[in-house]
Automatic annotation (TrEMBL):
Gene3D superfamilies: Periplasmic binding protein-like II (3.40.190.10)
Entries under PANTHER family matching the protein: ARABINOSE-BINDING PROTEIN-RELATED, POLYGALACTURONAN_RHAMNOGALACTURONAN-BINDING PROTEIN YTCQ
Transmembrane segments: none
SUPFAM superfamilies in the record: Periplasmic binding protein-like II
Keywords of the record: Cell membrane, Lipoprotein, Membrane, Palmitate, Signal, Transport
Alphabetical list of PROSITE patterns matching this protein: PROKAR_LIPOPROTEIN, SBP_BACTERIAL_1
Name of the protein in its database record: ABC transporter substrate-binding protein
Organism: Paenibacillus herberti
Signal sequence residues: 1-23
UniProt region (Disordered), positions on chain: 30-62
Family of this protein: Belongs to the bacterial solute-binding protein 1 family.
Amino acid sequence: MTFTVKKTAAGAMAIAMSLAVLAGCGGNSGSNNSAANSPAPASNTPANTAAPENTSAGGGEATKLSGDFTIQYFVGGYGDKWWKQVIADFKTANPDLNIKEEAGPQINTQNKPKWIAGDPPDFVYIDGPELNDRQMAEDGLLEDLTEWMQTATNVDGVKILDLLAQQPPQYGGKIYNVPLVLNSWGVFYNKALFEKNGWTEPTDWDSFIKSSEAIKTAGTTPFIHTGKYPYYINSSILFPAIVSANGNDYKLFQDMGNSDVEAFKSPAVLEALNKIVELRDKGFIDKASVSINHTDSQMLFLQNKDAYIPNGLWLPNEMSKDVPADFKFGFIPSVTQKPGDKVVANTSTATVAIAKNGKNKEAAKAFMQFIFSVKQASKFAELSGAPSNIKGDISSSSAPDFVKQAAAYLTADSTVVVPTVTFNQDVDKAMQDATVALTIGKIDPQGWVDRVVKVVEKVKK
């Protein structure tokens, strides 16, 4: 809907609803999620940004930036080292600009009143709980960047759209936000533990099941997930399985994201749900999963109580203080494909946007041009532990090995890279609740579909 700031209960409620989503830790869930422990950052100001100037998107005359410029960013699994560095670099390039940082693990909740009152920050990083890019765009909270993005260049003069590994999402045919992080959901395991026990690292569903049987026989629980936030298992297991079952065509999955009722009734959805049933019926799922949060499940995984965990690439960074010295992260985007079939990488992006009611949009656009440079992208991988959405080879960078491994998957011809899909909030919640019920045997796959379809039909009305 089109949003106009009005000091009424109805107006406030509309925005409050758009800012209320799932809790979690790093990445965007239509599934939002994201504590870095990386090397101390070095100065990374691109050579052509040393002067305190901003080059306009169209390549026109430079404009000196001044005044207040407020940036809101969530601090979760990706930490804040990169943000501190890039903001310092931008300040060096624009000394007359008064940059205000509004950041932290609770910033989305803390800043909600500002968004409701029509006094938001100028620039926002859409990640973590309480923010949903689709809802914010549809409720008119974000600046329409459609026209600007067609010609916008970064500080090196390269067109931003040409640099992006994943293009901006479009809502109603318009661009409101741009992916900064290109993450991937997937399944983590401890390579050191597997080597010690002679367990086979999975490449597909058959090898995943076979290794899980060996793991269970050895006395270790094969699989744990975050029952309190079921979008972890949905994003890492269910959704890739749907794409695989649909002949590696992710159009069906996108149709689900668009609340297409018939898409949820597809045989591919039932086939994917039955994979979760197989895990359940073989006794592979840790019974503690149903009631624990992300950090509790991750801690049990790090203690080798459980061999596999569905998660996003922020996991090693988020738990860096608790990772044993001999722990070696292994990662595969999907395990649900048939032998010989392609790996499916269900991506999770965290995006950046400019507030429609921001007071310094000129500085906000200049900052967007600044952060989408190859140099800043490389530094992001090093300091945050996740790939940036800028195309480029990071194999020679100092990024963690698991990040390089994930980046290799995301650029391989043998991988189906699924563009990030953001679900309607009510539909996403219904899928999560249904999946939890499925994992503990309260419903069967058809029951999952029936539950979710009822909500989708209500949303469509």
